[in-house]
């Protein structure tokens, strides 16, 4: 049984051929580590901090820019709420399909729950309907079950802003329909599919092997 992650759904929606290479053929293409270094440091630091570990040595390894990012996260109102869990693997069955992912953090204030996602880069252009938003909210809804409110919060650390998406019954119905539709398309896809090339292909790590 496949457990569809947000990245798997996004990849298929963007380019089924890329999905084929990455998740069917399991072809891994190297990417510069520098693309992810800052984000990995901040995520690891946040996880250890929330779990009450000694982070002194980790702080000493930060660059000036990373220290600024870390201070912004520490001061963030949502990061200061009561800790529930972090780097948390969460999955749920939506219709006939399993979906899931890894939450940066789950926080609460009374019976109000907040899924936090720290971004050292840019947040999604359409955050309400980003696959990460949809999958995480649907999974948390089934896991937490009883709550006054459930909100997904993108913490934009580069611009020191928050983007909040509050889960509603209307969103739930739309998310479930959209997720099951995409999962069904993947399940019934005939790989490899011939894809018309576009400008975005120039930035794809699979462009050299794509035919």
Looking at this protein, list some descriptive labels.
single chain, 211 residues, alpha/beta, globular
Can you put this structure into words, describing what you see?
It is a single chain. The protein has 211 residues and is α/β, with parallel strands linked by helices. It contains 7 helices and 6 strands; from the N terminus they run βαααααβββαββα. Strands 1, 2, 3, 4, 5 and 6 form a 6-stranded mixed sheet that branches. The protein is globular and about 50 Å long.
In short:
The protein is α/β, with parallel strands linked by helices. It is built from 7 helices and 6 strands; from the N terminus they run βαααααβββαββα. α1 runs antiparallel to α6, α3 packs across α5 and α6 packs across α7.
Outline the fold blueprint.
Elements: E1 3-4, H1 6-14, H2 16-24, H3 37-50, H4 56-60, H5 64-75, E2 82-94, E3 97-109, E4 112-119, H6 131-144, E5 149-156, E6 161-166, H7 169-187
Parallel strand pairs: 1-3, 4-5
Antiparallel strand pairs: 2-3, 3-4, 5-6
């Amino acid at each position: 049984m496949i457990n569809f992650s947000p990245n798997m759904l996004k990849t298929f929606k963007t380019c089924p051929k890329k999905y084929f290479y990455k998740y069917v053929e399991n072809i891994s293409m190297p990417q510069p580590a520098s693309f992810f270094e800052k984000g990995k440091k901040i995520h690891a630091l946040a996880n250890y901090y929330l779990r009450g570990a000694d982070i002194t040595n980790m702080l000493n390894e930060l660059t000036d820019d990373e220290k600024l990012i870390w201070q912004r996260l520490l001061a963030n109102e949502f990061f200061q709420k009561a800790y529930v869990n972090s780097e948390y693997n969460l999955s749920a069955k939506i219709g006939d399909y399993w979906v899931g992912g890894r939450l940066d953090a789950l926080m609460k204030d009374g019976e109000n729950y907040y899924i936090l996602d720290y971004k050292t880069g840019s947040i999604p252009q359409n955050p309400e309907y980003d696959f990460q938003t949809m999958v995480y909210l649907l999974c948390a809804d089934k896991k937490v079950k009883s709550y006054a409110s459930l909100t997904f919060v993108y913490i934009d650390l580069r611009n020191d802003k928050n983007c909040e998406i509050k889960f509603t019954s209307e969103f739930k119905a739309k998310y479930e329909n959209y997720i099951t539709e995409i999962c069904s398309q993947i399940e019934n896809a005939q790989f490899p599919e011939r894809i018309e090339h576009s400008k975005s292909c120039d930035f794809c790590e699979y462009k050299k092997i794509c035919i």
